[in-house]
Amino acid sequence: MIKRITHLGGLALSLPLIARYAVLTRVVGRDRAVSLVSESAAHIPGLRGLYVRQALYQRLLLQCGTGVHFGYQTLLSKQGITIGDQVYIGRFCTIGRVTIGDETRIADGVQLLSGQHHHGSSQEGVHLTSVRYEVITIGKGAWIGANAVVMADVGDGAIVGAGCVVTKPVEPGATVIGVPARPIHRPTQPRQAA
Length: 194
What we know:
- The chain is an alpha/beta fold.
- The chain has 3 helices and 18 strands.
- β17 (175-177) and β18 (182-185) form a beta hairpin.
- The longest helix has 27 residues, at 2-28.
């Protein structure tokens, strides 16, 4: 009963942000609206902030499962995010266009980018003419270590070590470390959930 009341309180507190999103969508487009509203929601501390973010993102995202933890100062930067059930997202993360499977754990400071092609480059320097946002997938039960940067798919049950930069897909059940990420464990079969 208390949990239900708390969730309803989070919904009530998120209504101004939902209304702001509706207005911003018409003015600046969906991606920018999600980013701006996410910045406002990210600054709300404690359990109040957690419940506001849960209620808000259940209405803004393509899918937001039950029991999702959105840490303080975590920002969502793009429309088109799908998050499964019982996902933990730590503090100070940035989430781009991504699909996150059930029971995945994402530590503090992780950057889940929308692929590898956010800008082009030439002899004249960096430019935005060849921007291409992709959807990356983080598999069910994966674990992403603190401050990792992920630009490619991560398979079910895979582990990405702290500080890794993932530029190529990580196979299910593998463990990767380093910059760029390289496998230190390649299972013959995926890990069994504990």
